[in-house]
Every structure is written in structure tokens, then in C-alpha cells.
Write a structure and sequence with these properties.
alpha+beta, about 90 residues, about 15% helix, single chain, OB fold (Dihydrolipoamide Acetyltransferase, E2P), binds copper (II) ion
């Protein structure tokens, strides 16, 4: 294992912030689809995509809600760490 490589992977999992609109919530799968604005930290443009989330994070949210959220992104997995509706 190359330690330098591991450090770079850890850095990729830092928390990023975004704002957007909830398009779909799937409680069974623990996913939420959000149309989010640009994420400068990750050099992401605005897009609609799925995030993993816990039932506790999703239970007070509904489709159409405007939200601000924080997440980690590693490979194809983006996982919400906190989410709040405006
Ligand atoms: Cu995205």
C-alpha cells in the first residue's frame, strides 16, 4: 500500500456543501434524489442525482422541498451527512 495514495483518497471524502430541490425520496433504499446547484469544492456543475441518506435524515422532508445539505463523495457514492429544509 502506498501511503501517499491513501491520503489522497481520504481527501476526496471531505465534506462538501450544496443547495437544491428534492425530486424524489426512497425510504426503503435510503436514497434521495436532489436537483442541486454547482459544488465548487468538487468542481461539479448543477445536476440532478441520487444521494444515500438515513431514514432519520429523510423523515421530515418531502418532494419539492428546498434544502441545504452536506455530503461526502467517493467514487460513485455520495452520502449525505446533514440536510435541512429552508
Ligand atoms: Cu451532483
Amino acid at each position: 500500500m502506498d501511503n501517499m495514495q491513501m491520503d489522497q483518497n481520504d481527501a476526496a471524502a471531505e465534506i462538501a456543501k450544496a443547495a437544491g430541490t428534492i425530486r424524489k425520496i426512497n425510504m426503503e433504499k435510503g436514497t434521495v434524489t436532489i436537483a442541486h446547484g454547482p459544488v465548487p469544492e468538487l468542481e461539479w456543475p448543477a445536476m440532478t442525482m441520487g444521494f444515500k441518506a438515513t431514514p432519520e435524515q429523510l423523515m421530515n422532508l418531502k418532494e419539492g422541498d428546498e434544502v441545504e445539505f452536506e455530503f461526502t463523495s467517493k467514487g460513485m457514492d455520495s452520502v449525505i451527512t446533514s440536510i435541512n429544509s429552508d
